[in-house]
Amino acid sequence: MRKSAILILLVIFSLALTATNLFGQTRELVVRVVDEKLSAVVDSLAKIRPSDVGRESAIKFERVFRHAGKHEAKHRKYGLHEWYRIIYAPHVIDKTAIIRKLRPMVDLIEESEFQVQSLPLPADSLFDQQWNFRNVGQMRGTPKADIDLVNAHRLEKGKREVVVSVHDSGIDLLHPDLKNNLWINSGEIPDNHVDDDDNGYVDDVHGWNFVEKNNDLQDTDGHGTHVSGVIAAKADEIGMIGIAGGDHQDNGVRIMVCRLDDDPPGLHIINPEESIIYAADNGAIISQNSWNSFGISYTVKAAIAYFSAEARNSMMDGGVVVFSAGNNGSMEPRFENDHPRVIMAGNIDHNNKIHPYSNFGPWLDLCAPGTDILSAHLFGSWKNMSGTSMAAPHVSGVGALVASRFGYPTFSPHTLIK
């Protein structure tokens, strides 16, 4: 029951998110003050002398919920105007000094402690250019028009058990941000020219080249490396970070490389349906596809159905297939989206607006950042690229992060999608 004419003191001990004042790190007391007691509380706080606290008085006394203008009356109806925070520096002020001054006026109903830790930003040198993960207005973007990855990484950074197959132009095998997150076929002995695990592919240690029908996975275009970087670049103080690539520890999802393009790169996609079957049979649970087809391919549809039903490992029972929507500015649906476990991704920019070249329409499942996306590229470099090809791996990466956090052997792809 709300008590009138008193101050209800709810002590919530937290680290302030911004602690750059004179005294260093700050802490907070949160109090509830009815209007008739407000002036008395302010006077009491002002009377906390240096002898009470060591050196200084409370740093700041402010409303938790700011004055709401035209919405203030509605806020007052719920008592939001009664909540105040007292911000102080714990190494120069003792919270008991504050409570001692206020105690004659209050009914102390709860005293609890918790910490809200400030979020350390990744130390990777190019992270500040990754607006898609943390948009603070760089590149003239809209602050917070991002996927809020820093907060997500408080809970999960990616687990090794989650395997994402990337069906694309290959990968820069020696890229410093990716080389430690390649899927390894544990049943295969490298370069012995024997199909050790009897899966039909010889020496497929990190994946397969479906164009040349060998294990040459080296990217000659950069597209596949870029896509893979968005998903699984390692947060290791080198270059950039990926959504689910982990950090210095033995974590981070792994990339199964399914190389599809021929040489010269980018002109043709070869055997995508076989690559999707391969991925399902060898432990991938998310299939990432940033390529377009012309017309309807019933073999691709069959492969999608197979992956959705038969892809599984210790983190999920079934598979999810992610496709880029295409860059023609068209509303024409993609045939791949017929299956309920296909997610079709469009492209939005750093102002949260759909890119004019992105395909769109009611068949589109969602949009993700896809404009001026910094990611890994050839020869250990990094590059900005744009298109729904860059949006789709954001979806795959977030899906991999969700599977890492919540996955178990019978975890449902339907649950992940929802």
What does this protein look like?
The protein is an alpha/beta fold and 418 residues long. Helix content is 22%, strand content 19%. It has 10 helices and 16 strands. The chain has a 7-stranded parallel beta sheet, with helices on both faces. The chain has a 5-stranded mixed beta sheet with strand order 3-4-2-1-5. β10 (312-313) and β11 form a beta hairpin. α6 packs parallel to α9 (388-406). The longest helix is centred in the last third of the chain and has 19 residues, at 388-406. It starts with 6 loop residues before the first strand and ends with a helix.
Mean pLDDT over the full residue set: 85
Q: Note poorly predicted spans.
A: 1-24, 50-58, 107-116
DSSP strand count: 16
Radius of gyration: 27 Å
Secondary structure tally, helices: 10
Strands of the largest sheet, in order across it? 7-8-6-9-12-13-14
The CA-CA distance between the termini, in Å, is 38 Å
Give the amount of beta strand, in percent: 15-25%
SS content category: alpha/beta
Question: Shape from CA axes?
Answer: elongated
Describe the sheet with the most strands.
7 strands, parallel
Q: What share of the residues lie within helices?
A: 10-25%
- Assembly form of the protein: single chain
Tell me the series of helices and strands, N- to C-terminal.
Answer: EEHHEHEHEHEEHEHEHEEEEEEEHH
Give the helix/strand layout.
Elements: E1 7-15, E2 27-33, H1 35-46, H2 50-53, E3 60-63, H3 72-77, E4 83-88, H4 95-102, E5 106-113, H5 149-152, E6 163-168, E7 207-209, H6 223-232, E8 254-259, H7 272-281, E9 286-289, H8 298-310, E10 312-313, E11 316-317, E12 320-324, E13 342-348, E14 366-369, E15 373-376, E16 382-385, H9 388-406, H10 413-417
Parallel strand pairs: 1-5, 6-8, 6-9, 7-8, 9-12, 12-13, 13-14
Antiparallel strand pairs: 1-2, 2-4, 3-4, 10-11, 15-16
Helix pairs in contact: 6-9, 7-8
